[in-house]
Amino acid sequence: MRWESLFADMEAQLAAGRLADVRADVAELARAERASITLAARARASVGRPVRMLVGGADVVEGELIDATPEWLLVATSSVRRALVPLAAASAIDGLAAHAAPAAGAVESRLGLGHALRALARDRAVVRVRAGGADLTGRIERVGADHLDLADVDGARRGGWAVAFATLQVVRTG
Question: What is the pTM (predicted TM-score) of this model?
Answer without folding.
Answer: 0.78
